[in-house]
Amino acid sequence: MPRLFNKKTLESNRKHLRNHSTSAESTLWLKLKNKQLEGRRFRRQHSVGNYILDFFCPQEKLAVELDGAGHFTREGQARDARRDEYLRGLGITVLRFENVWVFERADELLEEIRKAFSAG
Questions:
Q1: Which of 16, 53, 81, 107 fits as disulfide partner to 63, beta carbons 3.0 to 4.6 Å?
Q2: Alpha carbons 108 and 69: distance in angstroms, whole number
């Protein structure tokens, strides 16, 4: 069975993305790391299949994606739709937020993530 999570072939890409985070990713990470949100552990730049997720909570099977300008083109939206469909097929819930939410609506963003946590 092929490896599904954190494939070795994507390791350098994941590391590069962690070391070159957007300001929105860095800011959100400060709120998610060290189990700060409801005691849930998030991973940053975690890969599933051939996709690298901005943030992933294994306990909840929850992906949190922050979208910048490249996601709002026709091609970007088509890529995101394929990616989200693949992840949903694995039972992973995908939440997408525009980068600006991190700076202008952080409390709402965190509440939306909390709402996605399963009960108990």
A1: 53
A2: 21
